[in-house]
Design goal:
heterodimer, A: 318 residues, Alpha-Beta Plaits, five-stranded antiparallel beta sheet, 32% helix, B: 288 residues, mainly alpha, two-stranded antiparallel ribbon, 12 helices, globular, binds adenosine-5'-diphosphate, binds magnesium ion, transport (chain A), ABC_transporter-like_ATP-bd (chain A)
Chain lengths: 318, 288
C-alpha cells in the first residue's frame, strides 16, 4: 500500500451485516491536508466506513491505510494521531464536561497527567464551552454535547480529524462555528474528514469530496472536478442579439430567454466551457458596446451533480 | 480488485492493543468513575443497611435466633459483623457485584463512551484489565462495608467483649476485629470469580441490565447446584463452593485451608473467564 500523500486510502473496502452489504468495494482516497467531505444520504454507509477506518469494526474484505499505516493492525500507533467524532457524542452524564474530557485524556496511553488539566482547558476553550465546564453533561443541550464531542477529538494535536455529522443538533450559529473550527484546524495542517447527509452544509468547506449511495462510491475527487468544468454564464442586457453574436465568436452557444427581464433588459444564457474566462467575455461584450447590466457565473451545486449522477433526489433513504 | 475478495484477517489487532503501558492514570480514572457514580453509593448504602437492620431488630425484639451468629449479637456486639456478612453473602453481595461487573463494557457501550475510549486508543485488553480491577476493588469495598458497619453498629448498640471462637478459645476484642477484617477479605476474594464471569457476559452485549441480571442469575444457579447432593461430583468446581468457608478463620489456630482452596478456585475462574472476555472483546465489532 502506498503512502502517496493520502491520509486515508481504502481498497475494495467492504462490510457486510449478515446478508446486507452496508459498504461495497469502496476505494476512498483522502489527500493529506484536504478538507474531505464524505457525503451521502442517511444509510449510505458513511458511519460504517468511519468505524472501519478507526478499527472499531473489522472489514469483511478490503484494505485500509490511515496516515500511511495499515489498519486495524497498526491501530495502537495510528489512533493517537487521529481525533474523531463518530455517530454522535457519547459521555458519562453524571460527570461534568471537564471530568469527561479528563477521563478520555487519561485513557490515552502516554499522555502526561501533569499537563492534563491544561489540555482539557484548551480543548474546552476551542469549542467555546469553558462556561459549562463544571456542569454535568446530563444537563447539556444536544449542541453542547456535540461541541464537547469535538473537544474530545482536539485533546491532543492530531494529524487527522474525523467528524461524523458534526453539525447534527447545532443551530445555524453553531454550524458556522464548526465550519470555522474546521477551517482553523485545516489551516494548521490537519487533514479533516467530515461526513454529512446535508451536502449544502459543508460543500463550501471542502477541497475534496466523495459521494456515497447505498454503500457505493458515486463520485470522488477535487470539488471542481466533481462539479464538472462546465458552468452556466448568465447575462442581463438590453442588447441581447448583439451579445449572442459576441458570445458565439468566443465559442459559446447562447440563448435569449424572454420571460426573465426587467424593463428592456433581457437574459442571455450560455454554457461556459472550462477554458473560457468570464472576465474575457465581459470585456469583449463591453468592447462591442453591449450594455452589461448583470453577469453571473453559476456552478452546479454538489446536490445537482448527485441528482445528475444518480437520477435521484439526495434525501431518499434506501 | 482481487484484494477485495480476500477476507480481512484480524491479525495483529490483538497484539497491537495488548500492550498495557502507563496503566496507572487509567486505573485511577476508572476507580474515580466507579466512586463518582451515585449508583455505587446506593449499592454500598444498601449493603450497609443489612447490619444496621439486623442490629436494630435484635435490639428491639431482645431475642436471638435466626441465621448463624445472630443469636450472639445481644451478648457481644462484634457478632453483628459476622452475622451481617453471613446474611449478605448468598444474595445481596452477588447482586451488587453483578451490577458493577455486568456494567463493565456493556455500560460504556450503552453510554456511547466505549467507541471514544477505543479511539483514544485505550487498548481493548487494557480496558478489560482496569474494568476487572475496578470490579475487584468494589468487591473489597462491599465486603468491608458490611463488616465495618456491622462492627460499628454492634459497638454502638451492644456490649462488646472477648470473642469465643468456633474452636472454643477466647480472643481479645482487637484480635476478633482483625479476624473480622480478614473475613471481609476472604469474602471479597470469593467474589472475584463472579466478577470475571460478569465481565465476560458484559462483553457479549450492549445492554448492561441484561449482563447484570445474567450474572446474578448465575450466582444463584451455582448455589442451587451446590445444594443438590446428587451433583456432589461437580461441587468442588462451583465458584460458590467456598463462599461460606470463612468460618475457618474463626478457629485457633486459623485454618487457612479453605482460604487457599477458595483463592485457587477463584483464580481459575478469573483466568478462564478473563481469557474468554479478552477473546471476545478483542475481535468484536463496536457498533454501539
Ligand atoms: N449494527 C448494524 N447491524 C446491521 N446493519 C447495520 C448496522 N449498522 C449499520 N447498518 C446498516 O448499514 C447501512 C449503512 O449505515 P450507516 O453506515 O450508519 O449509514 P450512514 O452513516 O451513511 O447514515 C444501513 O443500511 C444500516 O441499516
Ligand atoms: Mg451516520
Amino acid at each position: 500500500m502506498t503512502t502517496s500523500g493520502l491520509a486515508v486510502e481504502t481498497r475494495g473496502l467492504t462490510k457486510r451485516f449478515g446478508r446486507h452489504e452496508a459498504v461495497s468495494s469502496l476505494d476512498l482516497d483522502v489527500p493529506t491536508g484536504s478538507v474531505f467531505g464524505f457525503l451521502g444520504p442517511n444509510g449510505s454507509g458513511k458511519t460504517t466506513t468511519i468505524r472501519m477506518l478507526l478499527a472499531l469494526a473489522a472489514p469483511t474484505a478490503g484494505t485500509i491505510s490511515v496516515l500511511g499505516s495499515e489498519m486495524p493492525s497498526r491501530s495502537a500507533d495510528v489512533l493517537p494521531r487521529v481525533g474523531a467524532l463518530v455517530e454522535g457524542p457519547g459521555f458519562y452524564p453524571f460527570l461534568s464536561g471537564e471530568a469527561n474530557l479528563t477521563r478520555f485524556d487519561a485513557a490515552e496511553p502516554g499522555t502526561s497527567s501533569r499537563t492534563r488539566e491544561g489540555r482539557v482547558a484548551d480543548a474546552l476553550a476551542r469549542v467555546g464551552l469553558p462556561a459549562a465546564a463544571r456542569k454535568k453533561v446530563g444537563s447539556y443541550s444536544l449542541g453542547m454535547k456535540q461541541r464537547l464531542g469535538i473537544a474530545v477529538a482536539l485533546l491532543s494535536p492530531r494529524d487527522l480529524i474525523v467528524l461524523d455529522e458534526p453539525t447534527n443538533g447545532l443551530d445555524p450559529q453553531g454550524t458556522r462555528e464548526v465550519r470555522a473550527l474546521i477551517r482553523g484546524l485545516n489551516a494548521d495542517g490537519t487533514t479533516v474528514l467530515v461526513s454529512s447527509h446535508l451536502l449544502a452544509e459543508i460543500e463550501q468547506l471542502c477541497s475534496h469530496a466523495a459521494i456515497m449511495r447505498t454503500g457505493r462510491l458515486v463520485a470522488q475527487g477535487g470539488l471542481d472536478e466533481l462539479r464538472g468544468t462546465t458552468a452556466a454564464f448568465e447575462l442581463e442586457t438590453p442588447d441581447a442579439e448583439r451579445a449572442v453574436g459576441v458570445l458565439a465568436r468566443h465559442g459559446l452557444a447562447a440563448l435569449v430567454t424572454d420571460d426573465v427581464h426587467v424593463g428592456d433588459g433581457r437574459r442571455v444564457d450560455a454554457a461556459l466551457p472550462g477554458d473560457v474566462l468570464s472576465e474575457d467575455l465581459v470585456s469583449a461584450l463591453v468592447a462591442a458596446d453591449v450594455r452589461v447590466r448583470g453577469v453571473a457565473v453559476r456552478r452546479p451545486s454538489l446536490e445537482e451533480c448527485f441528482v445528475e449522477l444518480t437520477g435521484e433526489g439526495f434525501d431518499v433513504e434506501r | 480488485m482481487s484484494n477485495a475478495e480476500v477476507p480481512a484477517a484480524d491479525h495483529g489487532r490483538a497484539s497491537s492493543t495488548a500492550r498495557p503501558r502507563g496503566i496507572g492514570a487509567l486505573l485511577l480514572s476508572e476507580f474515580a468513575l466507579l466512586f463518582r457514580r451515585r449508583r455505587t453509593w446506593a449499592l454500598l448504602s444498601a449493603l450497609a443497611a443489612i447490619p444496621v437492620l439486623l442490629a436494630v431488630a435484635v435490639r428491639l425484639s431482645g431475642e436471638g435466633g435466626g441465621p448463624s451468629f445472630v443469636g450472639e449479637i445481644a451478648g457481644n456486639g462484634l457478632f453483628t459483623g459476622f452475622a451481617a456478612i453471613t446474611v449478605a453473602v448468598p444474595l445481596f453481595l452477588p447482586l451488587t457485584i453483578g451490577v458493577v461487573a455486568g456494567d463493565s463494557t456493556a455500560g460504556e457501550a450503552s453510554l456511547g463512551t466505549l467507541r471514544y475510549l477505543l479511539i483514544t486508543p485505550v487498548g481493548r485488553i487494557r480496558l478489560l484489565l482496569v474494568k476487572f480491577a475496578a470490579a475487584a476493588l468494589f468487591c473489597l469495598t462491599a465486603a468491608l462495608t458490611v463488616m465495618v458497619v456491622g462492627i460499628l453498629i454492634g459497638l454502638a448498640l451492644f456490649p462488646v467483649g472477648p470473642v469465643t471462637l468456633l474452636s472454643g478459645t477466647q480472643v481479645p476484642v482487637i484480635d476478633a476485629i482483625a479476624r473480622a477484617l480478614l473475613i471481609a477479605v476472604y469474602v471479597a476474594v470469593s467474589l472475584l470469580g463472579l466478577s470475571a464471569i460478569g465481565l465476560f457476559i458484559s462483553t457479549l452485549t450492549d445492554v448492561p441490565v441484561g449482563a447484570m441480571a445474567a450474572t446474578v442469575v448465575l450466582s444463584i444457579t451455582s448455589q442451587i447446584l451446590g445444594s443438590l447432593s446428587q451433583l456432589s461430583a461437580i461441587h468442588p468446581y462451583l465458584f460458590t463452593t467456598h463462599w461460606f468457608g470463612f468460618g475457618d478463620l474463626l478457629r485457633d489456630p486459623i485454618s487457612w485451608t479453605s482460604f487457599g482452596e477458595n483463592a485457587l478456585l477463584q483464580f481459575g475462574y478469573v483466568v478462564v473467564f478473563g481469557s474468554l472476555a479478552m477473546g471476545r472483546f478483542v475481535t468484536r465489532d463496536i457498533l454501539s
